[in-house]
Every structure is written in structure tokens, then in C-alpha cells.
Amino acid sequence: MEQQNKLGIIKKSDNFSEWYTQVCGETGADLVDIRYDVQGFVVHKPWAFKIIRKIYELLEKEVELDNHEPMLFPTVIPEENLLKEKEHAGFAPDVFWITEAGKEKLDRKVALRPTGETAIYPMYSLWIRTHKDLPLKRYQTRITVFRNEKTTRPFLRGREFCFFETHDVFETHAEALQQIHKDMKIMQKVAFQKLNLPFIFFQRPKWDKFLGADNTFASDSLMPDGRRNQMSSTHDLGHNFAKAYNVQFNDKNGTKQYVYQTCFGPGIYRLMAALIGIHGDDKGLILPYSIAPIHIVIIPITFANKQQLNEKVIQKCSEVERRLKEFGYITKLDSSDESPGFKYNKYEMLGIPLRIEIGPREADGDEVTIALRTRDKKEKINLKHLDKEIKDKIEAYEQDMKKRAEEYFKDNTTQTESLTELKQIIEKHKGFIKVPFCSTDFDGQQCAETLKAETIGGVVSGTKFENPEKVHTGQRCIICNKEAKHIVYVAKSY
Ligand SMILES: [Zn+2]
Questions:
Q1: Domain holding 338: CATH number?
Q2: Suppose 316 and one of 57, 109, 363, 378 were both cysteines; which one would form an S-S bond, judging by CB atoms 3.0 to 4.6 Å apart?
């Protein structure tokens, strides 16, 4: 078996948390620099930002296919807007405020947005007049939001973090519910199909909903430490914000009605954390093809004092590079002076899907060596069918990733009806545990709190939104022993 990575990072299975920190840092894939001189704020380095940009592109494409149009709101929100929606005022303790400009104190302080609702909906009340203005579907992308988080971790919790949000307005609640299904489909397309990240789409219990929402829905993946990672949320806002900001429309009969609203926020950061944590291994990142900033790296195998031979190798490498670029693959030929071994480690750490190696013996022939980042064994491909060979390898690579991630998810989703057993499973960091539970309405909150205390951190994450598990006759709440109404998923959370 392999020792510690030659670039010196710890094994993922030995200490996931430390491994994660190292992969994010300079000795790893160099994604962030946490030494920025304002506490809790981090710098995103080129490799991270290239990946983030690709995630944004995937989401932008999908929401535009779903008829959303882009817009860009100011970063600042007046205090009275933020505090108007009563429930939303719960955000206030975590908000950064601007109170001065130059030497002058501002007449009214403004907040740095913690999220978009209270900035956007007062404007919606100006824009929406009649049923003809509906549905209204808009989104903001490539922005950041600010929250005064007490503890921060790269891509899991930050004081300023990358944000994406849709804000949709409908005439009827049925349309709003339909949108929640569409948001789930978007996550299936982006997170699962493109990023190979399995997840469950939950309806959260009432006590765990977003402030100001009637219901909250979320996609949770499972990190290697067994914790759930919330990768997106959709909120069914009902009339709550419409009433607070007076968002009304004249219906077909000319009667004024409040609108129904939903908002959807895929977590750019959380998707990054999932990509790093779920796919990565002891050698570093493993990036899905769809977001890899480089698809294929070509490494020439050259030797000291063999100038002529080396030139032939480089020439062959350039020829393969040119052809791959023509096929549309993002390709990098690394002919720097570092040793091939150093380069292997470096590009493995960055998570590049495919590596082609060309040495003196291959410079003349039609065969070259290829290594998939998901496999230890190298293979040969024939340059005569380069396009087809690469297509096949990428497909195999994606299948490897999906299979590994799905197996982990499946192996770490269990069930029990006994609290003792639940405690034992959670102690072993075992992911999701399905348990019978009395209620996901507020009357179940006490049981959820007891469960959390008993299991030292186990959180009732909710019920499956689609095809929720059926409760069998006689099943009782794992805490209060009353008749169970739901099968809920319990996991530790970040
Ligand atoms: Zn109960």
C-alpha cells in the first residue's frame, strides 16, 4: 500500500478534517489562503476560482433553461428593509453593518447582504402589478454575501462566501410547489449528473426551516466524516414576504392578491466542499470532467543528455496536444524541467482527470500511456483513434467517480428503531440513520432536541421529499414512543 503522499499530506482515512485543511492549503491543491488580514475572510486562489466559475456556469445554464433571467442587486440593504420581515430579523445578530462613509456618520446604517430577500422583494412590490407580470423568475449569480460566523472553515463556513440565488414569484401555491420540484431537478442535473455527488432532497422539519419560510427543502450529501452537507435549499415562502413588503398583483377579476414566492440557493461553497471531501483521496483532489479546469495533462518522459531523443518526445507531445485541443479538450503540456514523478504528484493533487505520458519508445509509434486519476493502473491508448479512446476513458473515469460516491452514500445510510443503537452508529460517524419519529411539525421539536442531546449532535434532517419511506403499523417514535408519523433521517451536521 502507498505511504503518505510524496507531497506530504496526511491520509484521508487517518484524519479527514486535517486532510481537508491540507488539501485546501498551499501544500495541497492550493485553493485558499487563510492568512488574509481580516479574520474569517479568505482569499480564493486561481485553481479554486476556476472550479467555482465552472460550478456557476453549470447552474446559470440550468436556471436559464428554466426561464430565469439574471439581475444584479446592490450589496447593501437599508436597515428598515432587513428588519421589516419579522422572522427575518433573526438574521440581524450575524449582519455586518456600514455606519460611516468617509468622515461622516450615515443617517441610516446599511447592512452588507446576508442573503437577497430583503433587498429584492421591496423592488418586486414596485415591479409586479398584474397577473400578466407573473410568473416572475430572476436570479443573481457570482456574488458574495456576508455573515458574521463565529467559526470558519474553507468552503464550509465563511464570513464572506460565494452565493447564487433565484427569487421566483407566482400567482398560486401550486406553481410555487412545482418550482420546488424543478429546483430539485436542477440539483439532480448539476450536483449528481455533472458533479457526481449523490444526495437526498429533504423536506426539513418545521423547526429547522428558514426564517420567514413556510417550508424548507434541502439537498444533503454525506461527507467522509459522516456529517451531512447541505448543498442547496429551496424555501417555500408562502405569503410571508409578500405581506411584509406588499408584493401584490391584480388577478383576472381585478382583485388584489398577495403573490406566492420561492427562493432557491445552491451553495457554491458547499458544492466545493463536497467535491473536495467526497471525491478526493490520499493523493489530493479528483475533479469531475464537467468542472475540471484542465481535462488532460501531457507529461513528456525525457532523460538528461539525450537531447535529440528528448526533442522527438516533445514534438510528439505537442502533436498530441494539438489534436486534443482540436477535439475540444482543455489540455496542458507540461514540458518544464521538473521530474516526471514530481509532475505526476502535482497534477494528481490538482485532480486532473487524465494524464498522458509519452517517452522515447512512444515517440515513434501509435501507442501512448494514459493514467486515469481514479485508477492506479496505467493503460495504453492508440493515437489512431484518439478521440474515441479519450471519450471512452472519460466515461470510465466518470463512472468510477459515481460508483465510488454512490457506494459510500449507500454504505453509510442505515436504519434503526433503538436509541441505544442510534447512539452507537452516530458515535462511529456513520452518516444517515433512518428512524421512526413522531412529528416533523413543531410538536416534534422537543423530541428532536432530546435526540440531539442523547446522540451528542445528531440532527433530524427531515423526510424524503419524493417517495418518503412509509411508516409501518406499530412503529413508534424513537424518543417519545408515541405513534410514529414519519421516517426521518438523522445525521450529524456542520
Ligand atoms: Zn417523539
A1: 3.40.50.800
A2: 363
Do 344 and 453 fall into the same domain?
no
* Residue 308 and residue 198 share a domain: no
345 and 242, same structural domain? no
Domain stop point among 279, 311, 336: 279
Is residue 8 situated within a structural domain? no
Number of domains in the chain: 3
pLDDT tens digits along 189-227: 999 999 999 999 999 999 999 888 999 999 999 999 999
| Mean pLDDT, rounded, for 364-393 | 97
Q: What's the confidence (pLDDT) of residue 88?
A: 63
Burial 191-213 (b: 16+ CB within 10 A, else e): bbebbbbbbbbbbbbbebbbbbb
Tell me the residues surrounding ligand 1 (ion) with CB < 5 Å: 438, 447, 477, 479-480
Q: Is residue 266 part of a domain?
A: yes
Give me the DSSP letters along 324-342: HHHHT--EEE--SSS-HHH
Average pLDDT, the chain: 95
Percent of the chain surpassing pLDDT 70: 97
Distance 453 CA to ligand 1 centre (A): 14
Please state the φ and ψ torsions of residue 391, each to the nearest 5 degrees. Answer: -55, -45
- Residue 463 Cα to ligand 1 midpoint, Å, equals 15
Q: Within a domain: residue 13?
A: no
Q: How far is the CA of 208 from the centre of ligand 1 (A)?
A: 16
Q: Among 396, 423, 445, give the residue marking a domain's end.
A: 396
Question: What whole-number distance in Å separates Cα of residue 226 and Cα of residue 109?
Answer: 42
pLDDT of 287-344, one tens digit each? Answer: 999 999 999 999 999 998 888 999 999 999 999 999 999 999 999 999 999 999 999 9
| Helical pair 445-454 and 419-427, crossing angle rounded to 10 deg | 50
Residue that has been written with the C-alpha cell 409501518 in this structure: 472
Give the per-residue pLDDT at 83: 84
What phi and psi, each to the nearest 5 degrees, are found at residue 236? -90, 100
Residues of the domain holding 386? 294-396
What is the model's pLDDT at position 1?
Answer: 39
Q: Is residue 318 part of a domain?
A: yes
Whether residue 65 is found in the same domain as residue 122: yes
Edge-to-edge strand list for the sheet holding 367-372 = 331-333, 296-300, 354-358, 367-372, 379-382
Over residues 351-367, mean pLDDT: 95
pTM exceeding the 0.70 threshold for the entire prediction = yes
Identify any residues that bridge with 221 across adjacent strands, giving them in sequence order.
Answer: 229
CATH of residue 475's domain is 3.30.110.30
| 87 and 225 co-located in one domain | yes
Q: Report the separation in Å between the CA atom of 443 and the middle of ligand 1, taken as the mean of its atom positions.
A: 8
d(CA 416, CA 458): 14
